[in-house]
Amino acid sequence: MAKKTSLTLSNKFNFIKYKKMSVFGINLKKYLSLMGWEQSDLAEKLGVSPSAVSEWVVKGIKPRAHRLEKIAELFGVTVNDLLYDFSAPKVENLNDVVLVSKKDLAHMQETLMAKEKEIEYLKQIVELQKDNTRLKNPSVVVDKT
């Protein structure tokens, strides 16, 4: 019974810790996900330890200015994009945010284009069927003369 209580307390603690995540930490986590990178990938590209990147994400500790500029450059964003929340509307729960990698986004775009082509093809079939019905049933054809 005591283990269950400690598990519940642990879950509450993690929730509180999560809620206190800084804007910088949230943005860094978002851009890592969008790039399909792990924290260790960013650490390697910056020449810092993975624990340093973890502190930036979890604790919101900001790196020095030259590293912030390098991070922004790697992600293709501005330093302000890393430090501030420009999103609208405000999201109360990060579980409601959907992060999509570039690879997944490209796949979704390809699927959408394929669906649009399929719809266009079906429209053509419907038109051909209408034309076929007009030819088979002369009473449907209206003489405009």
CATH architecture identity of the largest domain: Orthogonal Bundle
Largest sheet: none
* Integer count of domains: 2
Into which percentage range does the β-strand content fall? under 5%
- SSE order: HHHHHHH
The first-level CATH class of the largest domain is given as Mainly Alpha
Q: What best-fitting shape do the alpha-carbon axes yield?
A: rod-shaped
Q: How many β-strand stretches?
A: 0
Give the name of the CATH superfamily of the largest domain. lambda repressor-like DNA-binding domains
Rg calc: 27 Å
Total of DSSP H or I helical runs spanning 4+ residues: 7
CATH topology of the largest domain: 434 Repressor (Amino-terminal Domain)
The residue ranges in which pLDDT falls below 50 over 5 or more consecutive positions are 1-19
Ends apart, CA distance between termini? 90 Å
Structural class: mainly alpha
> What fraction, in percent, of the residue positions are helical?
55-70%
- Integer average pLDDT: 76
